[in-house]
Amino acid sequence: MRRNLYIDTNVFLTFYHFSNEDLEELKKLIALINTDNIKLYIPEQTQNEFNRNREVKIADSLDKLRGTKLGNQFPMICHSYDEYHLMKKAIKNFEMNKSKLLEKLQHDAETETLLADEVLTQLFSKAEIIETSDEILNRSILRYDVGNPPGKDKSYGDAINWESLLEEAPNDFDLYFISDDKDYYSKLNDKKFNEYLLKEWKTKKNSDLHYFRRLTEFFKQYYPDIEISSETEKEIIIKNLFEAYSFDNAKSVIRKLRGFDNFSIKQLNDITAAFATNNQIYWIKNDYAVSNARREIIEENKDKIDSTIYSTYEQEYK
């Protein structure tokens, strides 16, 4: 099942500031988009907000880092101890390394070569960007002017983001919404979504909206076992083989699988087991994509595959 996802500007900006979020989460997200498990929607307004505020967020981080000090004052009674001299040396090294770090951060921030820049640029390139049409803009202005959420500080930004999602996100499919903006959460319970907006979404889109304040919360609930490695996308696709829920979905997953090679023994065993146990695959055994994947991936590697698993596979594909 593919999940439609929106991530608000404030979540993206946390990767430039003090946060418990981890860039590894964004790498997981990229892998899930590449394997068609997630479709990320980014309104043009969200992208513009991010671009406007990136430098502000980085500058604040650098200022806070510059202000970080280790206590350098010691009572006279400490001076005759070895530990005092070790601590003084450590403080000197701290200040020297902090200065070098700030210089490198300043350079990379100005040239947009921070690791966060590289990962977010890649992520944005894979998202569905929703352009702010005149119709979206006009609806957003009206929405804000009549007092309907979201919106604050005489800004139409949140209203534009919301109207963009109402316009472009598909009907009848749930939306997974990640934001730490108070405009979106309930005034009674900040762990729940704004009730007015929730009802509006259900009415207009005929689907549910699932709300999270942190990207880590979303991954913990839906993708707790994903570990980032060079094999991540391959592992996700193999997992999708077991979960294929229709003939079309199975063929789509198998086409992606055929784009990889050099499968490990465990991966070959898992692929063979999925082909042998998922009826959405073996009921279309003669389909072009299925038969080619069987020949190229499974049958050509028969000697590497566990004999019990391969025997079960053979029974289904006689």
Walk me through what this model shows.
The structure is a single chain. With 318 residues, this protein is an alpha/beta fold. The protein has two domains: 3-61 and 119-222, 5'-nuclease (Rossmann fold), CATH 3.40.50; 232-316, no CATH class. Helix content is 58%, strand content 7%. The protein has 15 helices and five strands. The chain has helices spanning 9-13, 23-34, 44-66, 82-110, 115-125, 134-145, 157-168, 195-205, 215-222, 232-243, 247-257, 265-277, 279-282, 288-298, 307-316; strands at residues 3-7, 38-43, 128-130, 175-178, 209-212. A five-stranded parallel β-sheet has the order 3-2-1-4-5, with helices on both faces. Helix 8 links the parallel strand 4 and strand 5. 28% of the residues are buried.
What is the helix/strand order?
EHHEHHHEHHEHEHHHHHHH
Number of domains: 2
What is the name of the CATH superfamily of the largest domain?
Answer: 5'-nuclease
Strand content: 5-15%
The tally of helices reads 15
CATH architecture of the largest domain: 3-Layer(aba) Sandwich
Q: Roughly how much helix do the residues carry, as a percent range?
A: 55-70%
Biggest β-sheet: strands ordered side by side in the sheet: 3-2-1-4-5
